[in-house]
Amino acid sequence: MDTILVTGAAGQIGSELIPALRAKYGASLVIASDIRMPAPTTSVEGPFEHLDCTKADQVQEVVRRHGVRTIYHLAAILSATAEDRPQAAWILNMGGLYHVLEVARQYRCSVFFPSSIGAFGPTTPRDRTPQDTAQRPTTMYGVTKVSGELLCDYYAHRFGVDVRGVRFPGLISYAAPPGGGTTDYAVEIFYQAIRYRHYTCFLRGDTALDMMYMPDALRAIMELMEADSTRLKHRNAFNLGALNFTSEGLAAEIRKHIPDFVIEYEVDPIRQAIADSWPRSVDDSAARAEWGWSPAYDVAAMTRDMLQKLGTKLKPALAKG
Ligand SMILES: NC(=O)c1ccc[n+]([C@@H]2O[C@H](COP(=O)([O-])OP(=O)(O)OC[C@H]3O[C@@H](n4cnc5c(N)ncnc54)[C@H](O)[C@@H]3O)[C@@H](O)[C@H]2O)c1
Questions:
Q1: CA dihedral 99, 67, 30, 289 (to 10 degrees)
Q2: In this model, does residue 141 exceed pLDDT 80?
Q3: CA 270 to CA 224: how far, in whole Å?
Q4: Which residues line ligand 1 (CB under 6 A)?
Q5: Distance 117 CA to ligand 1 centre (A)
Q6: How many other C-beta atoms lie within 10 A of the C-beta of residue 132?
């Protein structure tokens, strides 16, 4: 069996992708890597490498030593943090991807690259955003995601690297905290609802965005990587839709379980401006047609599951406090 490498494995996606890949392919064949250690509670036991993706020699050494054949490249700086540290975001998001693609070219690896709805901008049609459309993002995160999509296409066409990817919306999960994105409110709201029955939201109540529950995101990654390549016309940067709501709408859904939950607003102009430059919803018909994408969770099912799982996770801390 071929070895799999996951970069940025201690993050929000990696914390859940690692156990899912290890369950499917065997723990010893899935190398988790990051510049920090994954939390012990979120990682099924298996190999870990300290790997800084901005260092080409480190990426090459790990791939060569372990005979890696597939790389899930998750290491990146997310949207809100990237506006804070644009230079660092360019170095990691572009430099890291370039090193991964170069190694993939030399060692004939397949690559998974997650792009984002952040790859769109204010001139993109905002409702049911088409798969192929204007992409002129106004954030450093978006600039690195569009450039990354193009670089992946280039390596696929020029060098035959099997690189596949999706444009994720905001991801909601209970295992690891989100890493500094504009959609983090949709995770924070659950923690605060359980702990305090109160949440102060940094986006306006009527801001609609696409979101996705982590189990659907993990399934999307694994199904795309296993899809029949002859059916893939796009390969990379597939639009993916799943859930679509405003914070007002999500609060109303939470109130069905916690009736005295209160939401207030203290809008952060930077994150609001980022959200306002993104699509309100995307058209994911290419993913549905080319590899059978279909989300399983709606807002009601996601909310029920989040409150239940997070309630269990936070119980010991709540009992102490
Ligand atoms: N989470 C989302 O809502 C979302 C949405 C769209 C796209 N994505 C994309 O998915 C990928 C993973 O996102 P995530 O939410 O897990 O991010 P995250 O911020 O939670 O995790 C990123 C990980 O990268 C690691 N990292 C930082 N610098 C590194 C370096 N130099 N070398 C190696 N690792 C380094 C961090 O320690 C962290 O564990 C990113 O490319 C992100 O842009 C995420």
A1: 70
A2: yes
A3: 33
A4: 7-8, 10-14, 34-36, 51-54, 74-76, 78, 92, 114, 116, 168, 170-171, 178-179, 181, 183
A5: 15
A6: 9
Model confidence at 239, pLDDT cuts 50, 70, 90, reads: very high
Cα gap 225→111, rounded to integer Å = 9
pLDDT for residue 42 is more than 60: no
Residue 57: what pLDDT? 98
Closest CA to 3 of 105, 82, 108: 108
Distance of CA 250 to CAs 131, 194, 206, 253, 254, Å?
26, 14, 11, 5, 6
| CA 217 / ligand 1 centre spacing (Å) | 14
